[in-house]
Amino acid sequence: MDYRQTIANKYSVRDYKDKTIDAKTAKEIRDYARTCPKLVEDIAVDIRFMDYDMVYRQLDGFAGYKGIMINAPHYAILLSEKKDHYIENAGYVGEGICLKANELGVASCWITFEDSKTVIHKLNLVTDKEVVGIIALGYGKKARKITTGAVATGGNYTQADMKKKSAGGAGRLPLQKIVYIDQWGQEADVDTLTERALYDPMDYARRAPSTLNRQPWRFLIDGSKIILTVRDDEETNEYEEQIDAGIAMLYFEGVIEQSLCQIQWKLEPVEKDYGIPEEYKVVASCEV
Ligand SMILES: Cc1cc2nc3c(=O)[nH]c(=O)nc-3n(C[C@H](O)[C@H](O)[C@H](O)COP(=O)(O)O)c2cc1C
Fold first, then answer.
1. Regarding beta strands 130-138 and 280-287, do their DSSP bridges make them parallel or antiparallel, or are they unpaired?
2. For ligand 1, is residue 71 a contact (CB within 6 Å)?
3. What is the pLDDT of residues 217-244, one digit of tens each?
């Protein structure tokens, strides 16, 4: 998959045409879901594709922001065995499916929910796994205009260069507010990121979708080490934070592997003291 292009064109769709996905495309998405990359290889995941009539009314009032369920022709229900980091893994896997769908012209949107047991019960699922994700799928009613994201200009870049570089990052924080170098709060500048071939991977990670568009991730660069932290706040729960983290890891990894090198996320705390504030938690780190 061409991560750059797919990420650049992707956005959440809440308004779907009353039209089912054609059989060939649906099969491609299902086949991808069966074999798609995982963040943690040995976590068993089971993805069920269900149609509007089996899901919408059952979950309306229960799933979605304030219980507002998204009305879509299809849904992917992600089920996972419960193991360390299974929610981050679900974010990574689920968003992989959204990107694949997007590549095939199919729009998507994550739908939040409170409790796995209720979803299993309401959807009549027979499973020994936990529900870890609900994703709406279908053809969007209208195309959104991709607008320029906010990135402050770096030394050697003209405004036009920056516009080109940041196209697609609509409604996102500027890169400098998300990426720090050496110490917490020390904002990364575009030239340094470009010299280290990290501009693109960071700029695309910045475009990751997140619950309520909170953009809770901050990246810290320490030499060749990249550390991902995620904010813990009252607007969202731990599940949503972990899904958001998994998605950001996929975006960063997908893009850096296309341009620079393979990476392996280590899902554990880091030793060094970077002055990370209390409300941020280290999720993972990797070497580039
Ligand atoms: C874990 C997660 C849960 C979400 N839940 C909902 C939801 O219940 N309803 C909704 O309309 N959008 C939901 N979204 C979509 C986000 O609001 C959206 O990704 C964000 O506002 C950024 O917009 P964009 O994806 O169009 O760039 C969710 C996104 C994530 C990652």
1. unpaired
2. no
3. 999 999 999 999 999 988 889 999 999 9
- Quote the CA–CA distance of 235 and 211 in Å, as a whole number: 9
Bridge partner residues of 130 (DSSP): 80
- CATH number for the 3-138 domain, one of 1.10.10.250, 1.10.287.110, 3.40.109.10, 3.20.20.140? 3.40.109.10
> Tens digits of per-residue pLDDT, 173-189?
999 999 999 999 999 99
- The residue to mutate among 114, 146, 210, 240, having the most atoms of ligand 1 within 8 angstroms of its beta carbon, is 210
The set of long-range contacts for 154-158, using a CB threshold of 8 Å and a minimum separation of 24, is 154/189, 154/190, 154/191, 154/194, 155/189, 155/190, 155/191, 156/191, 157/190
159-287 is classed CATH 3.40.109.30: yes
Q: Is the CB of 147 under 6 A from ligand 1?
A: no
* Consecutive H or E run containing 108: strand 107-110
Helix 86-103, helix 238-259: angle, nearest 10: 60
